[in-house]
Design a protein that fits this description.
Blueprint lengths: L2 E12 L2 E3 L5 E5 H7 L6 E6 L5 E9 L6 E4 L11 E10 L10 E5 L5 E6 L8
Parallel strand pairs: 1-8, 2-6, 3-5
Antiparallel strand pairs: 1-7, 3-6, 4-5, 4-7, 8-9
């Protein structure tokens, strides 16, 4: 049996753009993607703290250090510049893989610059 587990998180990032006239996706500062372990075209969940919207889409890297968090396509109806969001990536793992998993939690400031990266320990073991 596989478990779906968070593998990375960018916590309380600030939306910098919402671009309705784009085919769709989420553009994220490449530095934040790398620190969280996320990769281009990976499927992620984006949660809007302002209105509770939850969106699933894929990632496109923005230039490293740009601070960009841009919701593209129809998601622009639910996210606007200034909204705080949580971006979460997931993976599927067998229970025996969980003790070695270390999800990367990236905490950012108001300009989407890294404040801290936490290699989270899962609170359980299957060994």
């Amino acid at each position: 049996m596989f478990k779906q587990i968070c593998t990375g998180k960018i916590h309380r990032a600030t939306v910098t753009e919402a671009n309705l006239d784009y085919e769709g996706s989420l553009t994220v500062d490449g530095t934040l993607m790398k620190a969280s372990g996320m990769v281009p075209y990976e499927m992620v969940q984006v949660t809007n703290l302002a209105n509770g919207a939850i969106w699933r889409t894929y990632l496109i890297p923005a230039p490293a250090g740009s601070g960009t968090i841009c919701l593209n396509g129809s998601s622009a109806h639910h996210f606007k510049p200034g909204d705080l969001v949580i971006i979460i990536s997931y993976g599927y793992f067998r229970p025996e893989e969980l003790p070695d998993l270390r999800p990367q939690v990236v905490l950012v400031d108001g300009a989407n610059r890294i404040r801290q990266v936490i290699g989270a320990e899962l609170p359980f073991t299957t060994r």
